[in-house]
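hey can u check if this looks right to u? its 281 residues, i copy pasted from the old doc so theres a chance i mangled smth
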Amino acid sequence: MAWTLAANALDDEEREPEGRPFTWNGTFYDYLGILCAALPNEQAMKSFVQPITELGDEAFHDGMASLLRGFDRAALSTNATKPAYPAAMRIALAERLKNTRNYLHLNWRKEFITEIHAADALTAIFFQRSGVLQSLRPSIPDNWDGLDAVMPTLTGLVTGAASSGYLAVLFLDLVETSPRPALVPYLVEALGAWCSAYGPDTSFWVSRDIGGRVCRWLEDVLADGVPGLPDSTQAKALLDSLDVLVQAGVTSAREVEELLAASSAVERVSFQIAGVANRVI
């Protein structure tokens, strides 16, 4: 580890070093990820994760991508020791990501691309396999409840750079694996941030199908009127965002509004029936 950190450290003029050991890095950091899944959280964070966050941006991006993929394989496997706090690694790495030059640029430009080293790091933190292409299937099971613990962190990355179409796609790729009510508040938060950044911009909502994907996900969750819908504040935020989508020409947003209204009506009736039953008892 000491040798690897030295080989990837900034030079005396604070520049990325030439001739970094890319092949070694990929294999070594991947192994460290597997190791971190079996170590006590405090030891893993102090010995391996924190030192990687202290590297320069490019070396950090490369290192965290391999580290996370090794960690995720171990955490999701059936025959490896499971981490006690699986979200801790992503929380620490996300904080460092927010301080990179690339992340700051994401919120300045309305683009669906990003720098190649950062792209691999971002795809990794959103559970995608190696590669810089988007719309890849995340490497987690459908409806995986382990996603819940990391959603606040990942949603914070998205809302912190709401102008980034690249992050928007990664976020939707992820939540589409899990159309569950528990994730509705995070989708609502991200949707509100995109509405603030883009307004009724048809190139974002329609041409890139961001609006359509959001609405299809919400339709899947709301169709059966399942419990766990947003509270009144979240419901208002969702309706406000849906109005923006309607203005942008996302026709399915009207259907989601109707489903939301119907689901709310069902919940009100359920509460009334429960209240009557309690009085009878």
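The longest helix spans residues 252-280.
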